[in-house]
Amino acid sequence: MRITLIISIISHLLFSQVLLDINSIPSGSTVRLNGASIGETPILAFKVTPGNYTLHISSGEYAPVTHELFVQDVKRVKIKFVLNPLYKVKFRSKDQGLTFELNDEHSWVDNRIKLILESGKHTLRVYENGHLFDEQIIQVNRNMEFVYSRQKPQQNEILIEENNID
Predict the structure, then answer these.
(1) Which of 24, 92, 88 is nearest to 58 (CA)?
(2) What does DSSP assign to residue 51?
(3) Is the CB of residue 136 less than 8 Å from the CB of residue 154?
(4) Which residues pair with 69 in a beta bridge?
(5) Are the beta carbons of 55 and 48 closer than 8 angstroms?
(6) pTM (2 decimals)?
(7) Which pLDDT band, with edges at 50, 70 and 90, does 59 fall under?
(8) DSSP strand E in 10-159: where?
(9) What CA–CA distance (Å, rounded) separates 117 from 103?
């Protein structure tokens, strides 16, 4: 009786199949499962066994997404991803001698720089002689140019000027 139960459990673990449905916005995004390409979204009824997986979803001008997935022994798993668009952003400074830092990732001293940034809020820090001079939240929602000036703004004036670029 014990051997039958053990064989039944092992057999179930080895041969159980879970159907995986993956959708995304935008559709047509490339999907990689544990590094292997499995197609483009929408993916319907892709068979996997219970366990740990790494999903990577990417599409042209959108920020890629990597997601750790633990698939339990169920009939079907449905997942939907919304990828954030990427935008071209130009930063320009009217002042010399400043160091800029964006999201604790990008740092530069040039008066002009171009970056590709994910849609959303980003933290810009400005340093002068190694000391934090200014910190601002920048909302990126289109291709744009930011013109920075360290002059103190007058009433109803902002330090960053935003311009559309295309």
Answers:
(1) 24
(2) E
(3) no
(4) 53
(5) no
(6) 0.72
(7) very high
(8) 18-25, 30-33, 36-40, 43-48, 51-58, 65-71, 76-82, 86-93, 98-102, 106-108, 112-118, 120-128, 131-140, 144-148
(9) 11
Q: Which of 99, 152, 147, 89 is nearest to 121 (CA)?
A: 89
Distances (CA, A) of 50 to 44, 125, 150, 152: 17, 45, 56, 59
Cα gap 34→86, rounded to integer Å: 25
Instruction: Round the average pLDDT of the chain to a whole number and report it.
Output: 86
SS3 147: strand
- Which residue carries 């103190």 as its tokens? 152
pLDDT at position 94 is: 85
Query: What pLDDT, in 10s, does the model give residues 76-93?
Result: 999 999 999 999 999 999
Q: Is 163 helix (H, G, I), strand (E, B) or coil?
A: strand
Domains and CATH numbers, the chain: 11-82 (2.60.40.10), 86-164 (2.60.40)
pLDDT of residue 65: 95
Distances (CA, A) of 30 to 22, 40, 62, 97: 11, 5, 11, 43
DSSP SS3 for 7: helix
- Count of all residues that appear for the chain in the document: 166
